[in-house]
UniProtKB/TrEMBL annotation:
Transmembrane intervals: 6-28, 49-72, 84-101, 128-153, 159-177, 189-210, 230-252, 273-297, 317-338, 371-391, 397-418, 425-444, 450-472, 479-496
Keyword NAD attributed: no
Lineage: Bacteria, Bacillati, Actinomycetota, Actinomycetes, Kitasatosporales
GO biological process assignments: sodium ion transport
Name listed for the protein in its UniProt record: Sodium:proline symporter
Pfam families, per the entry: SSF (PF00474)
Organism: Streptomyces taklimakanensis
Swiss-Prot/TrEMBL catalytic activity: L-proline(in) + Na(+)(in) = L-proline(out) + Na(+)(out)
């Protein structure tokens, strides 16, 4: 180490830590590798993963280095309420997944991707629309994790940002390439245990090393009135509200989440996602408070780059041993999500592009599918490394992708509950929502006139849609309609005339509202009814020799699955909620 101001590890130490981490995860992956790997196990681990592995994997996937960095950025930008807005709403969105997830698994018990289910429900255009959005989203996520790794390594070692990006990318690819999703979930368990332990130790140490609580008393003058207010309207409108909408879209549209939903045993969906909710909230809010501490200290990140806050705070206040633990924590966080992104990308290319559209389900060759999946991982890694050189703001990327997925939320969910939704309604609603979202989000059309009022009205409808969908998952249609209507009416007097000033929030809300209105209008008059029972018939294993060994089973002993490939009592597969 060179001292507190420019704390760095030597090249040998950093290489040793990386070899220890990635070498260990590779050995874990190698132990579960199969000489004759099968396609379905590579994508979903046999649809029978237990509680501990599933909960840890869900937590580790949602907790990525980007979420830690973004939470700290939120604290540094908006004050003490920033990490709470980031971590609390993100945690609650994990909770909101499980009621929808139970319905999704009941109608498609052995699917691999949501897009695959959309193919069975609607057809090719809806499938490719959802698959395409996930390819873009997962690639952006992969890129942002490589950025986080490059920043960390360049700051704490003699290596450059580019060298750091290449090292992290190679390490993640090394242990994920052979066993795919099975490697991802098993290594997630180890990684999340390490992260939890590190956070419990590291965050308090940094706080007390920075002279807490005196730092908060003496540094209050560094905050604006909004930053010092726990109920800051600035924090809510610019961080909390956009993130509420964005993470709901992440929960429904993200293949990394859907992949774990299809992998876990059906009777363990609720405890898995409830546990992940608590784990995510505690860790992300805790790490985000480092950004708040930096704000009180008057800390200026190098080059004004807020992505540097966490690694620089750690370098300034942690002793060498704990700095090494911190290093492993961040590497584990970014790796656990990066391997999930690679698994998600490979499953989309395997099931949706090759399995459904190129070869056809009946003619798809499992060995070719595995080859497609592994090639996808290599190509995606190379592309993410190339894009990482742009060093874009991680928080902006997260909110943008979440808002973009907002256009898909209502059409996707309605397709699982409402038998009237058609392929044309799905496709038209998503395209219409994107056509409105993009000019609003990027200010292509001035919003200081009539268009601004239109945006406000659509945004108010979007508020009702978001809150209505949340209520629908837990309480059903009647409650959802009441909540949505009340939310729209109550917010209208306050929002119309001013809400268009918040482009990030409005972009997300109009995506929800336009897709909902168009999808409903094009579906409500349909006389044809869809039989949800056919989805289970149209989705399932590609490989007749699919592995039946649950990930993490002792000694590799297989546990037979009940007839039909599901666990627990079968749930109704038809009708609406």
């Amino acid at each position: 180490m060179d001292g507190v101001e420019t704390a760095q590890f030597s090249a040998v130490v950093v290489l040793g830590l990386l070899v220890l981490f990635y070498g260990g995860t590779f050995l874990i992956s190698a132990r579960i590798g199969k000489k004759d790997e099968n396609a379905d196990g590579y994508m979903t681990g046999g649809n029978n993963i237990g509680f501990g592995i599933s909960a840890a994997s869900m937590t580790a996937t949602w907790i990525w280095a980007s979420s830690m960095y973004a939470s700290a950025t939120s604290g540094y930008t908006y004050g003490i309420s920033g990490p709470v807005h980031y971590g609390l709403w993100g945690a609650l969105m994990i909770l909101f997944i499980y009621p929808f997830g139970k319905r999704i698994r009941s109608v498609a018990p052995k699917a691999h991707t949501l897009a695959e289910v959309m193919y069975a429900r609607h057809g090719r255009s809806s499938q490719l629309m959802l698959a395409g959005s996930n390819l873009v989203g997962s690639l952006i996520s992969l890129m942002s994790n490589f950025i986080a790794g490059g920043v960390l390594i360049s700051m704490l070692s003699p290596f450059t940002f580019t060298q750091g990006v290449f090292t992290v990318a190679a390490g993640v690819l090394l242990y994920t390439l052979w066993s795919g999703f099975r490697a991802s979930v098993l290594t997630d368990f180890v990684q999340v245990v390490a992260m939890l332990g590190a956070v419990v130790v590291i965050v308090p140490v940094i706080f007390f090393a920075a002279d807490f609580p005196a730092a908060f008393e003496n540094g209050a003058g560094n905050l604006t009135p909004q930053q010092g207010d726990f109920f800051s309207s600035d924090a809510f409108m610019n961080q909390g509200a956009p993130y509420i909408a964005a993470v709901l879209a992440y929960a429904i549209g993200n293949q990394t989440i859907a992949q774990r939903l299809f992998a876990v045993r059906r009777d363990l969906i609720k405890p898995t996602f409830v546990t992940a909710t608590v784990g995510y909230g505690a860790m992300v809010i805790g790490v985000g408070m480092l950004g708040v501490l930096a704000l009180y200290l008057g800390f200026e990140p190098t080059g004004g780059d807020v992505n540097n806050i966490i690694p620089e705070m750690a370098a300034d206040y942690l002793p060498p041993v704990l700095l090494a633990v911190f290093f492993i924590m961040i590497v584990g966080a970014l790796s656990s999500t990066a391997d999930s992104d690679l698994s998600a990308l490979s499953s989309i290319m395997m099931a949706d592009v090759y399995g459904q559209n190129m070869a056809g389900r009946e003619k798809a060759d499992p060995k070719t599918m595995l080859l497609v999946g592994r090639i996808t991982m290599v190509v995606a890694t190379a592309a993410a490394v190339a894009f990482a050189s742009l060093r874009l703001n991680i928080l902006d990327l997260l909110v943008f992708v979440g808002a973009l997925w907002g256009a898909l939320v209502f059409p996707v969910l309605a397709s699982f509950y409402w038998e009237k939704v058609t392929n044309r309604a799905f496709t038209s609603s998503v395209l219409a929502a994107l056509a409105v979202f993009l000019p609003v989000r990027f200010g292509w059309i001035p919003t200081d006139g009539a268009f601004g009022i239109v945006v406000d009205v659509l945004s108010v409808i979007g508020i009702g849609v978001v809150l209505g969908l949340m209520a629908f998952g837990f309480f059903g249609t009647k409650t959802a309609k009441v909540v949505g209507l009340v939310a729209t009416v109550v917010s209208a007097p306050f929002a119309i005339g001013s809400l268009h000033e918040y482009a990030t929030l409005c972009g997300s809300l109009v995506a929800y509202s336009v897709s909902t209105v168009v999808c409903w209008a094009m579906s409500v008059g349909q006389s044809e009814r869809f039989d949800f029972a056919v989805i289970a018939q149209r989705t399932g294993d590609f490989d007749d020799g699919a592995a039946r060994t649950p990930v993490g089973a002792a000694g590799g002993a297989g546990v037979p699955r009940p007839a039909g490939g599901t666990d627990g009592e079968p749930e109704p597969a038809t009708g609406t909620k």
